Amino acid sequence: MKAVIALLAIALAGCAGSDPAQYQYYRFGSVPDAPVSQNNNALTTHDHRVYVDQVNIVGVADQQALVQYIEAHKVHIANYHYWAEHPKLLLTKATLRYLDNAGFSPVLSAHASDIKPGDYKLLIEVSDLAGHYQQGALLKGAWHLYRITEQGNELLDVRHFEYRSPLSQDGFNALIVAHQQNWQQLMAQLHLEIDAQGPSHAAD
Fold this sequence. Notes:
Shape: elongated
Helix content: 25-40%
Order of helices and strands: HEEEEEHEEEEH
Distance between the termini: 88 Å
Radius of gyration: 22 Å
Number of strands: 9
Largest sheet: 9 strands, mixed
Strand content: 25-35%
């Protein structure tokens, strides 16, 4: 019995002496304002609002832990490295911030009020948001852009997207930076698409 107690004491001492796991949480850093329209020297303020649905994430990336592809068909879910909030919330906030900086007066669809014909609605679905053993940070999905009319929502465009950004160095910090670069590329594409609609299109 004494031998069992001694072994238990040694085991507990070993556990107490080891460092506890350190959880790490990540979010996007501050970014510069969205680029201004090529047709103007100052920030363009658009006449119509953009209503943004919460970003939808499908598949294995629909969780707060960071995801990595470590082989062609093998996924690793981080044990101690997490987004600071669920990525669908983080990406939705990043989208609203970018569009606001670009002068689009974005509103979260859940808070929609005073919707007018000519306003836009944006839906983004993400199918891949992961680190990749060869490609760095990987972002895949599709977006749908609608114009709100008296008759309902008119689909203006739907496009699939895929962005890859290499990591500047090893580690999760570099992975988050690369994820942010991918999202900014997506935002730039959407910026151009909404700009291309223009006031003349909205009045049709």
